[in-house]
Amino acid sequence: MSATAKLISGYQRFRNEYYPKNKEYLLKLAEEGQSPKVVIIACSDSRVDPTLILDCYPGELFVIRNVANLVPPCEDNDNDNFHGTSAALEFAVTKLNVESIIVLGHTQCGGIKALMDNTDKHMQGSFIDKWMQQLENVRDAINANSQYTDQLSRYNGCEQQGIQQSLENLMTFPWVAERVRSGTLSLHGWRYNLKTSELCAMDEKNGQFTKVN
Predict the structure, then answer these.
(1) Which of 37, 52, 67, 110 is deepest in the core (most CB within 10 A)?
(2) Using an 8 Å Cβ cutoff, are 103 and 167 in contact?
(3) Do residues 59 and 36 lie in contact, with contact meaning Cβ atoms separated by under 8 Å?
């Protein structure tokens, strides 16, 4: 069975099984619109599905996905760049009035690995290379820090500090900062372990990640 044929089979199961059982709920979403309370900024990695990991129904999460779950800093819109992540954030915060934004990182992130290794000359000037330049300062600081004794610890450190930088970048958006200061919006950093399925949350005071029980 081809990959697309498998998807069609999955749709058929959804249409014949899931949809009839949840028709009333799904029609309500269609008629009344979405009103999620939480934004998840997640990685595009196919192994990290926020809705599955967090056991949520359609309409509960507003999910923004990109390489390495990065939030760029707020930039002037009067330039030639496109701002997909920023646009999605703006819609969720200013139009949907979400209550929480969660940056959801994960172990074994390919974008982080590409940044830390930086040995593929074909990456130079690529879209991935340009996107991951946002964390070059994090990479350089980790490489200069003797507490990271091997490449795996450097990957882990960059994944964690990348989440922290994204949280800091969120506060550069005026409509995020205003709501955080007024207490109507909260920011969180989480990291999912692909091997153990453990979820860790970042302590905003010390930047340490501890397991969620």
Answers:
(1) 67
(2) yes
(3) yes
**How far is it, in rounded angstroms, from Cα 109 to Cα 39?**
20
Interatomic CA distance for residues 128 and 105, integer angstroms:
17
pLDDT of residue 158: 96
Q: What angle do CA 208, 174, 131 make, to 5 degrees?
A: 60
As a residue count, the chain comes to 213
- In this structure, what token pair is assigned to residue 131? 């996107």
Dump the DSSP string for 194-213: TTT--EEEE-TTT--EEE--
Instruction: Look up tokens 């595009």; give the residue.
Output: 44
Picking from 30, 38, 32, the residue whose alpha carbon sits closest to that of residue 89 is 38
**Given 3.40.50.300, 3.30.565.10, 3.40.1050.10, 2.70.20.10, which CATH number is that of 34-211?**
3.40.1050.10
pTM of this structure: 0.93
Angle at 135 between CA 48 and CA 93, to 5 degrees: 60
